[in-house]
Amino acid sequence: MDLSELRIFCRVAELGSFTRAAEQLGIAKGRVSTVVQTLESKVGGRLLQRTTRSVRLTPEGELFLVRCKELLTDAEQLQGMFQLAGGEIRGRVRIDMPNLFAQEMLMPHLLALLAAHPQLDLGISTNDRRVDMVREGFDALIRLGALPDSDLVARPLGSLAMGNLASPAYLAAYGTPHTLADLAGHRLVYYANNLRNEEAALHCMVDGVPQAVPMRSALAVNNSAFMQAACLHGLGIMQGALATNRRLIESGQLVEVLPASRLPPVPVTLLLPQRRHLAPRVEMVLNWIARVIRPSMQEVPATSPVRV
Q1: How many CB atoms lie within 10 A of CB 96?
Q2: Cβ-based neighbour number of residue 55 at 10 Å
Q3: pLDDT tens string 84-133
Q4: Which of the residues 54, 106, 171, 256 has the least number of beta carbons within 10 Å of its own beta carbon?
Q5: Distance between CA atoms of residues 129 and 93, nearest Å
Q6: For residues 175, 179, 181 and 184, what is the CA-based torsion angle, rounded to 10 degrees?
Q7: Helices of type H across 117-245
Q8: 151 in Cβ contact with 226 (< 8 Å)
Q9: Residue 280 CB partners (closer than 8 Å, separation 6+)
Q10: Is the same domain home to 175 and 253?
């Protein structure tokens, strides 16, 4: 089997479609189907489960996809090992990250990146949910906060200072809280992964001890951009990263309250697959992200990547 066959299989697996893979690769759909059938014959097992509505990886296909990506990455490393580190980035890179992080911290810099590297095929997915890196075809994930257990490799990027934020319209209607006791008369817009089970509370540090102050819920959401919009419309106080809300704070659309009762800084982590090497184009994009967000980050102690 050759590398071109492996690339075709990877694209089908990532997109879940023979037709979309053929369109992106610029080849006939029949060619894509033939390549996958040939690979299945060579490995002696079914790699994809086909139905009239979807194409899904079999358990054997999931293992094969991981190994394919490793081989393609090794080939790209070999081809680019003598190229200058600052050379042009070309090829496909897919990264998933939180919505506001992408919108506020990366968007202002993307035009310069894409202008400098016109051959870069960059895909940014903005999710606040957990994703399957292998099944959904991502090269890396960026996550804020505590990490669930997984088989991914974690690379710390720093941490973001947090704040308690409200709109001027909300403060005009409910008053500005000056102590935690004042929160009894206020409403909270808060992020909740599980909208059924999480209680409304403002989380903060009191004399170095974590504390949760119960509050009346205005709105529970599972999307950071919608939480910000709700806060802007005066629905309640929210807790968010100061860096991802800096534009709104500087324009006066949001105001920080109770600055002495902030959450501890939230860690920002890059999550990578368990591969020996990253493709050079992926490594260069990730280094670019680390560089452009550095002015907004608080430092974290230098550590080696760890599995989480």
Answers
A1: 23
A2: 19
A3: 445 677 888 999 999 999 999 999 999 999 999 998 999 999 977 777 77
A4: 54
A5: 20
A6: 30
A7: 133-136, 168-174, 224-232
A8: no
A9: 76, 77, 80, 83
A10: yes
